[in-house]
Write a structure and sequence with these properties.
four-stranded antiparallel beta sheet
Length: 351
């Protein structure tokens, strides 16, 4: 299995650097890729020079700069399954979506709710079926929209309005859609300070019926449905630990005990995007000087890649078979991962 270079450092440079300032971006805030790596998106950030915030599309050996109208840092990127569109969550209250097969200006949406914050710790997008979902920790709302019309199909704040505060359900900034787009999952904060009842809500997009599941995780950083929709994986933190739980949606445990990932340090309110590789849930976590891909079912490391500096971003392809790392110093590289336990991927022999 060999590492594949998808972009060189020069591809990520700012085209109009300021005097006495390097053209290298100050940091990479997010990266996303299609399963076949035909398209890779990289979000660059310059906290002191927001006019240089950009999303770069690497495809067919060319680099296209996608404008970010609000000049806000991008914190999450996800392609549609067929790679035809790209959805981004920005800090504050903004959602951007580009139709890549019909180039033009992106449409910009605001999450329902007033205001926004430039210091948003968690905001995510998800795709499934013919829809996409967005969530952020500031508005505590989750919205599902039709990908073609942009019309709202489901909104958590609307679904639970009118209920007493102790019965109300809110989102906490993480979101996942089932493969067919019929169900949305999102993390729910504790309802009261004294009662530890944090969990994950799975809700029907059309009818609104919902079920709450316990995960044993204080703060959820990422969620993902298994491809068959029968299980959900959650990864996040509790005091001094990075933890993960696989929830059997048909037969959930009453008080699940998460597995502990032996990470260098606890991940604290940062976006994580777990991906299922067959029946094996995986997630990449950026640590001190390296990116490690973890099997969330067994808490074992699948691959660890050394990287220069802390300014990078990493993501798995939607099939969970490739790790993509974007670095201002090294460019963009794809690192193949081993097949799930007990299976053999024929493509491994071709890599």
């Amino acid at each position: 299995m060999s590492v594949r270079q998808l972009g060189v450092p020069a591809d990520l440079e700012t085209p109009r650097p300021l005097p006495a300032r390097s053209p290298v971006p100050q940091r990479i805030s997010a990266v996303g890729a299609t399963a076949d790596l035909s398209r890779v998106a990289v979000a660059t950030a310059a906290p002191w020079f927001r006019e240089f915030t950009a999303v770069l599309l690497l495809a067919e050996g060319a680099v296209t700069r996608l404008a970010v109208p609000g000049r806000r840092d991008i914190v999450d990127l996800v392609f549609d399954p067929d790679g035809s569109a790209l959805t981004a969550m920005a800090d504050g209250n903004s959602v951007y979506r580009w139709a890549l097969d019909a180039p033009g200006e992106p449409f910009r949406l605001g999450m329902t709710g007033s205001g926004g914050s430039r210091d948003l710790p968690l905001a995510q997008a998800a795709v499934g079926g013919r829809s996409f979902a967005t969530a952020n920790a500031f508005t505590r709302n989750v919205v599902v929209r039709d990908a073609a019309t942009r019309h709202v199909l489901h909104e958590v704040s609307e679904a639970f309005k009118g209920l007493a505060y102790d019965e109300r359900v809110e989102g906490e900034g993480t979101v996942a859609l089932s493969a067919d787009g019929s169900r949305v999952a999102f993390s729910r904060p504790r309802r009261t300070f004294y009662k530890e009842d944090e969990g994950v809500v799975v809700q029907q997009v059309d009818g609104g019926a919902h079920t709450e599941y316990r995960t044993g995780i204080r703060w959820t950083n990422g969620l993902a449905f298994r491809p068959d929709g029968a299980a959900l994986v959650a990864v996040g933190t509790r005091p001094d630990e990075t933890v993960a739980t696989v929830v059997d949606l048909n037969d959930p445990a009453g008080e699940p005990e998460p597995v502990v990932l032996p990470t260098d340090e606890r991940v604290d309110r940062v976006n994580l995007r777990p991906v299922w590789c067959g029946a094996e849930p995986r997630v990449p976590i950026v640590g001190r000087g390296r990116v490690t891909v973890w099997n969330l079912g067994t808490a074992s490391a699948l691959r660890s890649v050394p990287v220069p500096g802390p300014r990078i971003a990493a993501a798995l392809t939607p099939d969970g078979r490739t790790l993509v790392i974007a670095s201002p110093d090294d460019g963009v590289h794809a690192h193949p991962l081993p097949s799930p336990s007990g299976t053999k991927d024929p493509s491994d022999e071709r890599r």
